[in-house]
Amino acid sequence: MTFEEINRRAARREPLPDALPPSERTAYLALCLLYELHGLGRIGRADGVRIKAALTQELEQMQARERKWIVAETVLKIVRRSDCPAAKALLREMEKTMGEAAP
Questions:
Q1: H helix intervals, the chain
Q2: What b-and-e string marks burial along 10-37, b requiring 16 or more CB atoms within 10 Å of the CB?
Q3: Is the separation of the CB atoms in 77 and 71 below 8 Å?
Q4: 32 near 7, Cβ under 8 Å?
Q5: What residues contact 22, with CB distance under 8 A and at least 6 apart?
Q6: What is the value of pTM for the model shown?
């Protein structure tokens, strides 16, 4: 979903589809709050425009990160199904490293 679609739904207080990535849901909630604060007179138009511009950039960055995670998850699934000894060694090393990083 584009920022403008999210913005339109937030401005009209329309519900979002259930299956949205976290980045889009977060942008929607932030825009709802922005419109609410503007309606209450707590945020002026100039500040609202500035905040929306920042939200646009943040959404684009979060969507890019989500796309990278989807690719990484796909590669991990492929490696897990592989019979290649090098792939299995890489997977063991990754799991060992991740186990050390866990709290």
A1: 3-11, 22-39, 45-81, 85-101
A2: beeeeebeeeeeebbebbbebbbebbee
A3: no
A4: no
A5: 62, 66
A6: 0.74
Q: Say what angle helices 3-11 and 45-81 make with each other, to 10 degrees.
A: 130
The total of other beta-carbon atoms located within 10 Å of residue 51's CB is 17
According to the model, what pLDDT value does residue 103 have?
55
- Six token digits for residue 82: 């592989």
User: What are the average pLDDT values for consecutive 10-residue runs of the chain, which has 103 residues?
Assistant: 94 89 94 96 96 96 94 90 90 85 58
Neighbours of 7 (CB within 10 A): 19
